[in-house]
Specification:
CATH superfamily: Vaccinia Virus protein VP39
Number of helices: 8
Number of domains: 1
CATH class: Alpha Beta
Oligomer: single chain
Bound molecules: S-adenosylmethionine
Length: 257
Amino acid sequence: MATPLNQDADRIYVEEYKLVTPFRFDEAVAQVFDNMISRSVPGYATTLELINSTAALYAQPGTCCYDLGCSLGAATVAMANALPEHCRIVAVDNSAAMVERCTANIGEYQRQYDQPRTEIDVIEADLSHIDFQPASIIVMNYTLQFIPSEHRADLIAKLAAALVSGGCLLISEKVHFNDAATTERMRKLHENYKRQQGYSDLEIAQKRTALENVLVTDTESTHHERFKAVGLTSDLIARHLNFVTLLATKPSDSNEG
Ligand SMILES: C[S@@+](CC[C@H](N)C(=O)[O-])C[C@H]1O[C@@H](n2cnc3c(N)ncnc32)[C@H](O)[C@@H]1O
């Protein structure tokens, strides 16, 4: 399930900064993003496999399949590889640098087929401004954590309303835990994962500073409660340290009432 990405190594925080500025999905990050996310998020490759298998199970012909916060299009490609005919993927990101590269990657992906089976539209937009079409699968792979906390419940309600009967929302997120000791234990294990991937202590510390108040985690139970409040049934389907993947489904009409 290789994506057509060919990227530089992430060296963004190698040199010591006098002042570490808040993290942004800008040109410099887009340039190295594939390398950055796979070395920073334990289980990232597994989430792409889960997106592929979830799309195979849940995508319904005649509906939209959304990749929200698509970055370079890795989740879009994972979905596209599994879709039945007559689905349309809409990949959305509000970073111009990401959308430019994603558009190029998806163009390359589509060119391998004489007749691409799936229409894929890559759109530069903020998620809060999208009018969602009826959807059978909506993927947010590590995106909700960048949406301001006060807007998350409204966004999830909008997504749940867009889901067709039997559709699903697949969300991966970094989380914290109900007790501080577990959160701290997982933080240390995650930092060790990053060391194993070749990041130095300085890189790890500067990235952590940059992400403060930019990547804001919830607990797993907050996610489940948010889904339940809008009529979705959710399950934890994967966890790697402090990173979880949750599958939230909308009941089929036949199960309702
Ligand atoms: C961690 S990355 C997602 C990784 C990607 N889904 C993957 O699987 O490779 C988060 C993405 O969400 C985008 N993003 C953050 N806030 C957004 C918003 N309000 N509207 C649209 N995109 C947003 C960022 O620009 C970034 O590309």
